[in-house]
Structures are given as structure tokens and as C-alpha cells.
Amino acid sequence: MPSYVVTGAARGIGFEFVTQLSASGANTVFGLVRNKAVATELNALSSSRKNITVLQADITDVNALELAANKVSEATGGKLDFLINNAAKSNHPGFTLDGFPSPEAVEYDLLDNFKTNTIGVVHTTNAFLPLLKNGSVKKVISISSGISDLGLTLLGEIAAEPCYAISKAALNMVVAKYAAQYRAEGFTFLAICPGLVSTSMAPTEETTPGEMKMLAPALPKVAPGFKGPISPEESVRMQLEVVDRWTVDRSGEFVSHFGNRERWM
């Protein structure tokens, strides 16, 4: 029975991961959320699907992550097959590095994004590594972003949303570092961009109307024939197809939901 931990599972892409993975009764799925009390949809889904467990843990809180890992360990006999690092944040998608109201504001936003999108993933991965080492699959998937790709940024002249992009670029290196360390133990680490996803999110995670406005001028250059954002359902389905076929010999790579670096949207 494969086991999965999905962070940022209360809504959007994270919720869709839990929805699709739990559709098979053969899977055991743990959804991590910052505030279990307000995770209405996830709580409702877990009531109807007994293979879902909702756990509360902010990925910037090491103690909370360790408690969550202990609860997963108790339920699985000390094992975990998949970790999906989905939780993330983005504060000011329309700003550029020189467009913040003050030097303090840009520094705060850089550190705030980095704390969640980069350091939070390190803390989460470290918390669950002992369980993953006992698992039979050993896959760690971290949700990144196409705008963290140097080539895409330069080709599309995408100057906006810098703090989020910088933190995700750092995340890609985090994934590579883990892959370099754990390839010999059979781990597969992967950073994957979910594409431009249409969600009803507040501007704290995933694609927002502000991001669409920001990216619009770049789309003809980087994505000719782009037809609009895809749904969370389509994004997660495509990502899981990539995850399923990814193997340890390609551990540490950063790709799109198409499984390559040529097409991001």
C-alpha cells in the first residue's frame, strides 16, 4: 500500500494531489495543512475517504513537522514512499526588484519567500527522510515554477515576481543537492513546474490573476499558441504521469509538467 505525504493540501494543487491519489483505496495519503480547522474541503474529503489523514503542520515549524512525521510513522510502521513538497507562498507578483516601496520591503519579501519556499522544503524533507529511507519507492517531489528557470526568464524578459522566482530557483538547487547525496540509496528527487494553473487561491500560492497579467507580455515568446491556464485536475494528472515514470538515474532534475525543459506552459 503506497504512502504519500502532501504539504499545502488544504486547497488548490495540493488538494488536487490528495484527491487524485486517494481515489485509489490502495494508497494511504496524509495531507499536511497549516490550519486544520479551516481546511474545510480536505476535512470533508477525509470523512468520505478513509485512506486520508489530515495533519496540521506549518512547514516553517520544525517541531510541528517532527510531530507530523511521528504520526505518519505510527500509521505506516515507520515508512513513507512519496513526499510531495507542494506548500509555498508568493506575496507580490507584480513587483520587480526595484519596485518595492523601500529596501526593507524587498529584503523582507526575499527572506519571507525563502523561508517558506526553500528552507521550509529543507525542514520538511529532513523531517520525513527517516521514513522515506524505510520506504520502498523513495521519491521526493518538490513543486517549483517555470519562472525560476534562467532561460525562460531571459527569453520572456520576466522581471516581475522576483522574490518567489529566486526562492524557487534556490529550491531547484536544494533538490539537486539531495539527489547528489542520496542517489546511491535509491532516492529519486525531482523539482517540477505544475504549469500555469487556474485556481481560486488568494495571492499566497500558485497561479493568480496578478500572475497572468504579469506573464501576458512574455507568453508569445515563451509559449506560442498558449490557450490559457490549465485546471488543477489536469496539472496534477500530468505531474503524476511524470512522477510515475521518473527514475533514480534522472534524480535531481527540474522539469515541467510535460517532463522536459522545452515547454513550460
Structure description:
- By secondary structure, the chain is α/β, with parallel strands linked by helices.
- It has a single domain (about 5-255), classed as 3-Layer(aba) Sandwich (Rossmann fold), CATH 3.40.50.
- The chain contains nine helices and seven strands.
- Strands 3-2-1-4-5-6-7 form a seven-stranded parallel β-sheet, with helices on both faces.
- Strand 4, helix 4 and strand 5 form a beta-alpha-beta unit.
- The radius of gyration is 18 Å and the shape is globular.
- Residues about 200-205 have low confidence and may be disordered.
- This is NAD(P)-binding protein.
- InterPro entries: NAD(P)-bd_dom_sf (IPR036291), SDR_enzymes (IPR052184), SDR_fam (IPR002347).
- It comes from Mycena albidolilacea.
- Pfam families: adh_short (PF00106).
Helix-residue proportion: 40-55%
Number of strands: 7
Q: How many H/I helical runs?
A: 9
User: What strand line-up does the widest sheet have?
Assistant: 3-2-1-4-5-6-7
The CATH topology label is Rossmann fold
Largest sheet: 7 strands, parallel
**Regarding CATH, which class?**
Alpha Beta
Organism: Mycena albidolilacea
GO molecular function, one term: oxidoreductase activity, acting on the CH-OH group of donors, NAD or NADP as acceptor
Protein name: NAD(P)-binding protein
InterPro entries: NAD(P)-bd_dom_sf, SDR_enzymes, SDR_fam
